[in-house]
């Protein structure tokens, strides 16, 4: 008899044991190519590199090596030579795969990520004489690593630098490129008449470019807010009091030193915090990015609908398959993929924004786990931006479809005719009573032809110039200032 039993799952190859490791999530799997640039900024390795960077810069600052701190802060600390500063700054600069593994091994012993960073740097400082000679000062200032710091002093600055880099170097440039692409399409199609649909029903005509321009304008407004974001930081000790600082070196102006250091990193100094920097700036930023996402989601659903209506034709990708069984199909998968990723991204950003503004009393660890999802939040948004950009690049306007839709809906001219009758009535023209009601009776629920509309206009008794102007009007020409609005205000 044939064996119809399925192979038991216990007999399968264990995918979790395959080397190199298989990604658990799609961002590090099938979509990695689209989001890989974020790894330099918001991955776990990037976090540790920024921690090393902040610790190193703090040592340099305490030895009088940055603007705003003229002399060594801690008595007995020597001012570093340019070669010693370069040696320290090379530690984060050369942080690669071997160093990632080394740091991970140290953390296995410390069971504390920031303490592992401290020990990692001290190893490098201990090795400095081999590179700089036996007279180097680095060995004598080793205890300045993590001096007077709590872990959150290092973490908050590291996250601020990471997020700033991810936004300004990766996410925002891609977002700006997409909006520029959309704006270019708006200008290109600014004069293409389009039957508008309000509540899904034929309404006052517009132009395709004006509708795309509205979305570009909305997205640009959000980008202006995101471009203006503040990235805050603090370095003031275990509960924000400079307690350890003043106990160790009571004569120093620690708030001034803190401010100089935070601004040296290119961040905005937050003078009043608990153990943690309050993360309000993160909540503000993530809310703005989520709003950008949602407007982009609106664009995706609108374009999807225009494709469904035939306004846009999709240019097939050579060799691509639209359906496994229906060979004719060219599906709007770029926009559908974008919708899903924008929803995931916005949900993560909403959670980040809601969670990060609260910390019990002086500190709890909810933010630690939460912030590790910053990368996926931006990753799903970046993936969506990539998909929308590629989707838009393969669209062509079917002007025959747009023209036919307009020509089959002459009733939309009921609005301008009754408006002209109102103006005529105000000007004293007799016989202009009840213009709205008369056009409603003519058009509501009825298909009206061009001849029907022109014959009706001829019976109204309008001034000759007004009647002539309305008789010449068509659904395709009744677009108001749409083209001018795009060309005047979009940029």
From TrEMBL:
Xref: PROSITE patterns: FUMARATE_LYASES
Keyword check for Protein biosynthesis: no
GO molecular function terms attached to this record: N6-(1,2-dicarboxyethyl)AMP AMP-lyase (fumarate-forming) activity
Stated role: Catalyzes two reactions in de novo purine nucleotide biosynthesis. Catalyzes the breakdown of 5-aminoimidazole- (N-succinylocarboxamide) ribotide (SAICAR or 2-[5-amino-1-(5-phospho-beta-D-ribosyl)imidazole-4-carboxamido]succinate) to 5-aminoimidazole-4-carboxamide ribotide (AICAR or 5-amino-1-(5-phospho-beta-D-ribosyl)imidazole-4-carboxamide) and fumarate, and of adenylosuccinate (ADS or N(6)-(1,2-dicarboxyethyl)-AMP) to adenosine monophosphate (AMP) and fumarate.
Top-rank lineage group of the source organism: Bacteria
Q: Which GO terms describe its biological process?
A: IMP biosynthetic process
Q: Provide the protein name.
A: Adenylosuccinate lyase
| Keyword terms of this UniProt record | Lyase, Purine biosynthesis
Q: Which residues form the Adenylosuccinate lyase PurB C-terminal domain?
A: 359-479
Residue ranges of every copy of the Fumarate lyase N-terminal domain listed in the record: 29-338
Pathway(s): Purine metabolism; AMP biosynthesis via de novo pathway; AMP from IMP: step 2/2; Purine metabolism; IMP biosynthesis via de novo pathway; 5-amino-1-(5-phospho-D-ribosyl)imidazole-4-carboxamide from 5-amino-1-(5-phospho-D-ribosyl)imidazole-4-carboxylate: step 2/2
Q: Say if the entry is tagged with keyword DNA repair.
A: no
């Amino acid at each position: 008899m044939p064996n119809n039993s399925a192979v038991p799952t216990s007999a399968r190859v264990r995918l979790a044991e395959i080397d190199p490791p298989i990604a658990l999530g799609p961002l590090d799997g099938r979509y990695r190519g689209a989001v890989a640039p974020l790894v330099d900024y918001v991955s776990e390795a990037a976090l540790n590199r920024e921690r090393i960077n902040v610790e190193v810069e703090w040592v340099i600052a305490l030895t009088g090596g940055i603007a705003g701190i003229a002399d060594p802060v801690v008595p007995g600390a020597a001012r570093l030579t340019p070669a010693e500063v370069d040696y320290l700054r090379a530690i984060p600069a050369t942080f690669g795969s071997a160093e990632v593994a080394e740091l991970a091994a140290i953390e296995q012993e410390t069971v504390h990520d920031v303490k592992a960073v401290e020990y990692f740097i001290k190893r490098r400082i201990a090795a400095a004489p081999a590179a700089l000679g036996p007279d180097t000062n680095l060995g004598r200032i080793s205890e300045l690593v993590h001096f007077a710091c709590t872990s959150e002093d290092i973490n908050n600055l590291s996250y601020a630098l990471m997020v700033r880099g991810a936004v300004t170097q990766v996410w925002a440039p891609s977002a700006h490129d997409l909006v520029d692409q959309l704006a270019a399409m708006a200008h290109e199609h600014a004069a293409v008449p389009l039957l508008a649909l309000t509540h899904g029903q034929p309404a006052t005509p517009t132009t395709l470019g004006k509708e795309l321009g509205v979305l570009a304008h909305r997205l640009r407004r959000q980008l202006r807010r995101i471009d203006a974001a503040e990235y805050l930081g603090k370095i003031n000790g275990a509960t924000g009091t400079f307690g350890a600082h003043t106990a160790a070196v009571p004569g120093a102006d620690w708030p001034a030193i803190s401010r100089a250091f935070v601004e040296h990193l290119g961040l905005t100094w937050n003078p009043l915090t608990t153990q943690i920097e309050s993360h309000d700036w993160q909540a503000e930023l993530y809310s703005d990015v989520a709003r950008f996402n949602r407007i982009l989601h609106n664009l995706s659903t609108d374009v999807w609908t225009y494709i469904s209506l035939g306004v846009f034709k999709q240019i097939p990708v050579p060799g691509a398959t639209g359906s496994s069984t229906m060979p004719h199909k060219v599906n709007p998968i770029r926009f559908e993929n974008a919708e899903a990723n924008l929803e995931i991204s916005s949900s993560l950003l909403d959670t980040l924004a809601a969670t990060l503004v609260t910390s019990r009393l002086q500190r709890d660890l909810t933010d630690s786990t939460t912030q590790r999802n910053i990368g996926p939040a931006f990753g799903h948004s970046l993936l969506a931006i990539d998909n929308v950009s590629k989707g838009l690049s393969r669209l062509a306007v079917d002007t025959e479809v747009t023209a036919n839709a307009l020509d089959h809906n002459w009733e939309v001219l009921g609005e301008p005719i009754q408006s002209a009758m109102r103006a005529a009535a105000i000007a004293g023209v007799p016989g202009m009573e009840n213009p709205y009601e008369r056009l409603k009776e003519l058009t509501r629920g009825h298909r009206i032809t061009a001849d029907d509309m022109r014959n009706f206009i001829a019976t109204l008794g309008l001034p000759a110039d007004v009647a002539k102007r309305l008789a010449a009007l068509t659904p395709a020409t009744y677009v108001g200032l749409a083209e001018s609005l795009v060309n005047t205000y979009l940029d």
